[in-house]
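User: Structure please.
Assistant: Input sequence and predicted structure:
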Amino acid sequence: MPDEKLARAIRSRVRRNILHILAIKPKHPVHLIADELKITESSASKHLKLLHDLGILEFHDEGKERFYSLKVLEIKELLEVYDRVMKKL
């Protein structure tokens, strides 16, 4: 079910951080996302693939680099609400 997959996707702190990055800096390359989160490119790619497969992200390739951006812009609002709720818990 899509709602369960979305809930699982945003439950991960790494994936939420990726979404926060892309909400601020659209069209971001994998290696910079990995650098900002201090994770391997392989790990970043796995998280990005999951978010892409859910339909939240889109990408385009330029040469050897893959750039990701938000496909569902409303995810920004969802993250804002999620963060506000978590601060109250």
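The chain has five helices and three strands.
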